[in-house]
């Protein structure tokens, strides 16, 4: 879509435009594809299966994006830096770190809302998004991970999972590297079950420091689409999964 082309307005039942029609780099909102529609579970499922995601501030119309290039993290290329690896080894060996899957999903979203993305002063996670992703959670498509140190919440994240495809959404931290501990657990789970790709949506220096890279949208879609049709592995974490990151309990 031309950077000056009008954004299509979706009615309740209107299909998404082709992702190739999204605004391009250099436009006021690169990746913007459409506005309107709704946040129903079927609409969200259809969006993710086509590489589309909602991103808008509370009070705005619903905005739909399909960015090009797309930021992704391959679990096999996750960079666990030395200091955090050392900390995780100590915590795991002393049984001080607990990873919980799907522990209070709504609270995780609200904590993410209170921790905006780097460089942003606000959040796109309003009550309408929390309610919408809560419905996805009850369907088994939206999941959360939290890391607890000495019984206290250290950090967490939530994601959308379709088949064997993981779409990372947002993270929060309450102590140093708390969100990275939760991400490390998600990566370890993905490695255990040989999931090849985690979508990160936006290109940031923080994500690059963790091993994320960009893919062109056509390449991203070619890798993503077949994964969404596969069976999702069991959503449960075991401490033995840390071994995939070189962390052992003994």
Summarize the model shown.
The protein folds into two domains: 9-67, Alpha-Beta Plaits (2-Layer Sandwich); 71-245, Leucyl/phenylalanyl-tRNA-protein transferase, C-terminal domain (Aminopeptidase, 3-Layer(aba) Sandwich).
What profile does the largest beta sheet have?
7 strands, mixed
Order of helices and strands: EEHEEEHEHHEEEHEHEH
**Average of pLDDT:** 94
Query: Biggest sheet, strands in spatial order?
Result: 6-7-8-9-10-5-11
Kindly state the percentage of residues in helix. Answer: 25-40%
- Second rung of CATH, namely the architecture of the largest domain: 3-Layer(aba) Sandwich
**Fourth-level CATH superfamily of the largest domain:** Leucyl/phenylalanyl-tRNA-protein transferase, C-terminal domain
Which CATH class of the largest domain? Answer: Alpha Beta
Tell me the domain tally.
Answer: 2
E-strand count: 11
Write structural notes for this entry.
The protein is of the alpha+beta class. It folds into two domains: 9-67, Alpha-Beta Plaits; 71-245, 3-Layer(aba) Sandwich (Aminopeptidase), CATH 3.40.630.70. Helices cover 30% and strands 22% of the residues. The protein has seven helices and eleven strands. It has helices at residues 41-49, 82-93, 105-113, 127-139, 178-192, 205-209, 217-228, and strands at residues 9-10, 32-36, 53-54, 63-65, 70-73, 97-101, 142-149, 152-162, 165-173, 198-201, 213-215. The protein has a seven-stranded mixed sheet with strand order 6-7-8-9-10-5-11, sandwiched between helices. Strands 1-2-4-3 form a four-stranded mixed sheet, covered by helices on one side. Helix 3 (105-113) packs antiparallel against helix 4. The longest helix is centred in the last third of the chain and has 15 residues, at 178-192. The protein is globular. 36% of the residues are buried.
């Amino acid at each position: 879509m031309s950077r000056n082309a009008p954004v299509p307005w979706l009615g309740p039942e209107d299909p998404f435009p082709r992702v190739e029609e999204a605004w391009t780099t250099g436009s006021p909102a690169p990746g913007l594809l459409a506005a309107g529609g709704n946040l129903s579970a079927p609409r969200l499922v259809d969006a993710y299966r086509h590489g589309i995601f909602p991103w808008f501030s509370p009070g705005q119309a619903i905005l739909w994006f399909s960015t090009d290039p797309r930021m992704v993290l391959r679990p096999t290329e996750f960079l666990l830096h030395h200091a955090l690896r050392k900390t995780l080894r100590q915590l795991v060996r002393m049984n001080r770190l607990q990873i919980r899957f799907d522990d209070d999903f709504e609270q995780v979203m609200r904590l993410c809302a209170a921790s905006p993305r780097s460089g942003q002063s606000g959040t796109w996670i309003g009550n309408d998004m929390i309610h919408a992703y809560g419905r996805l959670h009850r369907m088994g498509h939206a999941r959360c991970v939290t890391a607890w140190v000495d019984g206290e919440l250290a950090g967490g994240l939530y994601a959308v999972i379709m088949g064997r495809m993981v779409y990372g959404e947002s993270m929060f931290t309450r102590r140093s590297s708390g969100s990275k501990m939760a991400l490390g657990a998600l990566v370890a789970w993905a490695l255990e079950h040989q999931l090849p790709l985690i979508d990160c949506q936006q290109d940031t220096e923080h994500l690059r420091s963790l091993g994320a890279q960009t893919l062109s949208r056509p390449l991203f879609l070619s890798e993503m689409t077949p994964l969404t049709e596969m069976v999702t592995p069991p959503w449960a974490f075991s401490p033995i999964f840390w071994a995939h990151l070189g962390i052992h309990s003994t």
